[in-house]
């Protein structure tokens, strides 16, 4: 990457303390804040935009890690909308993009959201000479991505799962995580398109089978969407309207109320376990599979189902 900044660049903006570990940058200050500063130690440059969702996750996480390193690395933030010429010169095609500079030149970088373990490894490589030991294993990335998904950050989780798949396309756990992340993000259509192209070995994987079941449940729930109030009225008039109770359970599931869905299915099972070829039990098992065997709702609901089976 050829840079055209000379030693005559303007000094950093007034009011910015020279010792700041994290600062806003511009074309005018780039030579001083990045090129010259990187002669003394690593500098990372975060190219971001106010409209970029992943940037709002990545930027603060990077800042936190940089401050934790107490001066071993510095960070400069560049708003690409304000610095379009600089972004074009550095060939920034999407945000977030992060470049690392050492000895006056770019030495590493990445594009897109990253899990914290990857960011730590990225910074550690800069300060330790790039040793491979700092790189987390693919299993470590999957574990962290699953936690991100559980915490509600499906977008960053999806990026982490995609990173694993880029290195190991046959990794079923990463594929299952990516598919589940897409479902959480509301992109069921992409999941539907991807499933038929997976290998037979992947389709046998329990986590991917669970994603397929979750997709099936979502499609079934779509038919009952928006009907909850009417279904509840039907049940108030006739508590043995089994079809209304089944449809209400699916409507609850589609609305993200899995616990309410389980309650209705268990009540249906209690009232008539044989109805419609054991529909209540079969839907419960599908829901358990979609949630996963270790999900707290699966664990508690299996106990309740067992109690009904042997009552």
UniProtKB/TrEMBL annotation:
Pfam family, one: TPR_19
Annotated coiled-coil segments of the chain: none
PROSITE patterns on file: THIOREDOXIN_1, THIOREDOXIN_2
Keyword terms of this UniProt record: Disulfide bond, Electron transport, Redox-active center, Transport
Ranges for domain Thioredoxin: 16-128
GO molecular function: protein-disulfide reductase activity
SUPFAM superfamilies to which the protein is assigned, alphabetical: Thioredoxin-like, TPR-like
Gene Ontology cellular component list: cytosol
Any one GO biological process: cell redox homeostasis
CDD domains: TRX_family
Magnesium recorded as keyword: no
Family the entry assigns: Belongs to the thioredoxin family.
UniProt protein name: Thioredoxin
Organism of provenance: Magnetospirillum aberrantis SpK
Protein encoded by which gene: trxA
């Amino acid at each position: 990457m050829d840079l055209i900044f000379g030693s005559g660049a303007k000094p950093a903006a007034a009011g910015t303390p020279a010792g700041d570990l994290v600062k806003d940058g511009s074309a005018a200050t780039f030579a001083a804040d990045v090129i010259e500063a990187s002669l003394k130690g690593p500098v990372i440059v975060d190219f971001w935009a106010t409209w970029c969702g992943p940037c709002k996750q990545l930027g603060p996480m990077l800042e936190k890690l940089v401050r934790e390193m107490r001066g071993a690395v510095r960070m400069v933030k560049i708003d690409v909308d304000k610095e379009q010429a600089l972004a074009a010169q550095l060939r920034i095609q999407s945000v977030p993009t992060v470049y690392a500079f050492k000895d006056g030149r770019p030495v590493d970088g990445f594009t897109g959201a990253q899990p914290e373990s990857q960011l730590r490894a990225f910074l550690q490589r800069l300060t330790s000479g790039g040793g491979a030991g700092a790189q987390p294993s693919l299993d470590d990335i999957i574990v962290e991505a699953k936690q991100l998904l559980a915490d509600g950050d499906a977008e960053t989780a999806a990026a982490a799962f995609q990173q694993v798949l880029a290195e190991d396309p046959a990794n079923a756990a990463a594929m299952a995580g990516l598919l589940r992340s897409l479902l959480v993000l509301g992109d069921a259509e992409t999941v539907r398109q991807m499933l038929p192209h997976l290998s037979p070995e992947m389709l046998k994987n329990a986590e991917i089978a669970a994603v397929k079941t979750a997709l099936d449940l979502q499609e079934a729930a779509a038919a009952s969407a928006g009907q909850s109030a009417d279904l509840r009225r039907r049940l108030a008039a006739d508590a043995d309207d089994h079809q209304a109770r089944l449809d209400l359970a699916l409507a609850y599931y589609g609305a993200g109320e899995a616990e309410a869905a389980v309650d209705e299915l268990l009540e249906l099972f209690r009232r008539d376990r044989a109805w419609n070829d054991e529909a209540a039990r079969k839907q419960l098992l599908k829901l358990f599979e979609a949630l996963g065997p270790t999900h707290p709702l699966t664990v508690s609901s299996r106990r309740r189902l067992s109690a009904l089976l042997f009552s």
